[in-house]
């Protein structure tokens, strides 16, 4: 059988400047995600490790080393003495790239719950290497990617909240992450990135978009009308506006309670 995949690529032309992604049914009966590249394509499982492998019988290398830490702690009564050597860290980072490709494809497909799953997983990887890598280089190298992964998690979480008709929750998530990324920049001495960084620019634009989806509180409009009526000495109008405002305040209080 021919190993040439040109017949597949010719039916799915690569489009520069776009993320070319699709879902397909695999020959094994399981759903796959395909990401079209200029010189070929990537095919990924939708759950578990993207390449379908189970290192040492575990879902991923990260899970394998997390279990190794648990075993070490059980035997020794402490996490002390457990560490990841250079080779382990390199393999963990390579595995993280697989999940990066998948959550990028998932985001384009609008599968926001899966993006949240895979970005949280890579953030867990960063934390694990920072805590247990033997070499300082391996402890720190992933931190440069943390703002980007936080941004992707937050974009997917916000879009998911919007899909659930909860724009205020989406806004709260975005604002928390903006603060978290700003603190990261400050910690690593990159304060200028707080103004020019791509991650914060994307989140601030999303913040503005979502704010436009939230209806303005009618109490604010009535309060302004009340102020204008009083200043213009339209006291009957002011009394009517005050009554409507009090009713709205009572209704809002009951909802909060």
Structure characterization notes:
By secondary structure, this protein is mainly alpha-helical. The protein has 3 domains: 1-45, no CATH class; 47-211, Serine Threonine Protein Phosphatase 5, Tetratricopeptide repeat; 218-256. It is 63% helix and 7% strand. It has helices at 6-9, 61-76, 86-109, 112-132, 136-140, 146-163, 167-187, 193-196, 198-211, 218-231, 235-256, and strands spanning 20-25, 31-37, 40-45. Strands 1-2-3 form a 3-stranded antiparallel beta sheet, covered by helices on one side. A hairpin with a 5-residue loop joins strand 1 (20-25) and strand 2 (31-37). Helix 4 (112-132) packs antiparallel against helix 6 (146-163). The protein is extended, with a radius of gyration of 26 Å. It starts with 5 loop residues before the first helix and ends with a helix.
How would you describe this structure in keywords?
63% helix; single chain; mainly alpha; 3 strands; Serine Threonine Protein Phosphatase 5, Tetratricopeptide repeat; 3 domains; 11 helices
CATH class of the largest domain: Mainly Alpha
- Helix vs. strand class: mainly alpha
Poorly predicted sequence stretches spanning 5 or more consecutive residues: 252-257
Q: In the CATH scheme, what's the topology name of the largest domain?
A: Serine Threonine Protein Phosphatase 5, Tetratricopeptide repeat
From the spread of the alpha carbons, the general shape counts as extended
The amount of beta strand, in percent, is 5-15%
Q: What strand line-up does the widest sheet have? A: 1-2-3
Average pLDDT works out at: 90
Assign a percent range to the helix content. Answer: 55-70%
Tally of separate helices:
11
Number of domains: 3
Order of helices and strands: HEEEHHHHHHHHHH
CATH architectural designation of the largest domain: Alpha Horseshoe
Report the strand count. Answer: 3
Largest sheet features:
3 strands, antiparallel
Question: Whole-Å distance between the termini?
Answer: 69 Å
**What is the gyration radius calculated from CA atoms?**
26 Å
């Amino acid at each position: 059988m021919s190993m040439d995949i040109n017949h597949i690529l010719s039916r799915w032309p690569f489009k520069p400047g776009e993320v070319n992604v699709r879902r397909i049914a695999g020959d094994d009966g399981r759903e796959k995600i395909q990401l079209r590249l200029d010189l070929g394509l990537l095919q990924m499982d939708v759950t578990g490790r993207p390449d379908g492998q189970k290192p040492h019988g575990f879902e991923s290398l990260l899970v394998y080393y997390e279990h190794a830490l648990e075993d070490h702690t059980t035997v020794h009564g402490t996490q002390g003495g457990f560490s990841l050597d250079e080779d382990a860290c390199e393999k963990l980072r390579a595995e993280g790239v697989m999940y990066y490709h998948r959550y990028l494809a998932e985001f384009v497909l609008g599968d926001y719950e899966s993006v949240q799953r895979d970005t949280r997983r890579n953030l867990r990887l960063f934390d694990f290497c920072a805590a247990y890598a033997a070499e300082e280089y391996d402890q720190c190298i992933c931190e440069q990617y943390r703002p980007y992964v936080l941004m992707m998690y937050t974009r997917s979480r916000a879009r998911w909240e919007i899909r659930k008709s909860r724009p205020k929750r989406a806004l709260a998530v975005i604002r928390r992450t903006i603060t978290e990324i700003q603190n990261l920049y400050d910690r690593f001495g990159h304060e200028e990135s707080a103004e020019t960084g791509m991650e914060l620019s994307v989140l601030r634009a999303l913040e503005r978009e979502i704010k436009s989806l939230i209806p303005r509180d009618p109490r604010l409009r009535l309060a302004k009308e009340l102020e204008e009526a009083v200043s213009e000495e339209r006291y009957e109008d002011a009394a009517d506006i005050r009554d409507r405002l009090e009713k709205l305040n009572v209704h809002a209080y009951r909802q909060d309670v």
